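At this stage, I put together one protein's amino acid sequence and its backbone structure tokens, which the following lines show:
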Amino acid sequence: MEILSYRKSLLAGVMVAALSGAASSVAQTPVDAVTTAGTQRIEENAEAQEAVDILSDAVSDLAAEYKQLSKVVEGLEVYNGLLQKQVDNQNAEINALNDSIGKVALIERQIVPLMVQMVETLDAFVALDVPFLLEERSGRVARLRAMMERSDVTAAEKFRRILEAYEIENDYGRTIEAYKGSLDLDGAKREVNFLRVGRVALLYQNDGGELTGAWDTASRSWQTLAPETYQREVAAGLKIARKQTAPDLLVLPVAAPNGGVQ
């Protein structure tokens, strides 16, 4: 009886132990699953956060690039606007030039007779003017007349040279000049020094100073001057013109309003 009771007690203990182990096993399985699931979710969240960070960096880079490109586009718009204005201005100039080119033939037909008349007027002026540097001035007019017949010189260049000749003649009226030349005196050719004071007076004197004279516009001839009256003044004027002495007041004979030299 005691043995049978012991076996029953032992069997009951084994069953209790088995039930306790089963209960313990059943109680631990959900916890492990939750832990595993939590760990997996954490890992997934970390991966998701990493992906978000990468996307955020990419978005920031794209935003910065967009701003930079926007500035470039704005600059290009300003540049293109300026270029368009330049193109418009150039087109306007081209149209104006085309219009001028169309009128060149007409202008040239009108200006050529004018230039011929200007050359002839200059020739007549030199012939009637005080006879200084006649060879140089007459040669300039002859070259202009020959130039007018040349086909390889443009009308613009011809007009420029004619105006240049007029400017040279105009400058003679406000300058003083001394130069050497020859003059027929008493039937003999003499080397003298000419003194030109604008177009007011044209005088001569030989190197020794014995001969002194002036151009008489009224008679269009040379008039001999008294050496004791103008010899020193003409000599001083020659030095001033050659920049050998400082400018000073000169007493020289000039053409009187009613003709003659005084």
User: Anything to note?
Assistant: The mean pLDDT is 84. The first strand starts at residue 176 and ends at 185. DSSP finds four helices and five strands in the chain.
